[in-house]
Amino acid sequence: MKLRPLRDRVVIRRAEGDTRSKGGIVIPDTSQEKPLEAEMIAVGSGARDESGALIVPDVKAGDFILLGKWSGTEVKIDREDLLIMKEADITGIIEKTVAAKNAA
């Protein structure tokens, strides 16, 4: 993918949602809630403050994040559903524990 977001924008890929309920019922795509977890794909260079100084983004490509339910703009690039949003719409960075890294 050759997409570079501008300024304080980021490109993310939503995590895969569960396709089955806890009881084992298959949930159709149209009824599934969008996951609030995502992986950072690309990050812009950062915003500028009033004096013109560059504010470097707190996130980087490869980070896993939490985002708001209705955040960003959905786009399809190279047959992949992605989301472009401002860095300010990110609620947090998910830190992977050692056990989670070993399980992955």
What does this structure look like?
Belongs to the GroES chaperonin family. InterPro entries: Chaperonin_GroES, Chaperonin_GroES_sf, Chaprnonin_Cpn10_CS, GroES-like_sf. This is Co-chaperonin GroES. Heptamer of 7 subunits arranged in a ring. Interacts with the chaperonin GroEL. It comes from Mesorhizobium australafricanum. The longest helix has 6 residues, at 98-103. This protein has one helix at residues 98-103; strands spanning 9-14, 37-43, 47-48, 54-55, 64-67, 73-77, 80-86, 90-94. A six-stranded antiparallel β-sheet has the order 6-7-1-2-5-8, with no helix packed on it. It has a single domain, classed as GroES chaperonin (10 Kd Chaperonin, Protein Cpn10, Chain O), CATH 2.30.33.40. The model has no long low-confidence stretch (mean pLDDT 81). With 104 residues, it is mostly beta strands. It is 6% helix and 37% strand.
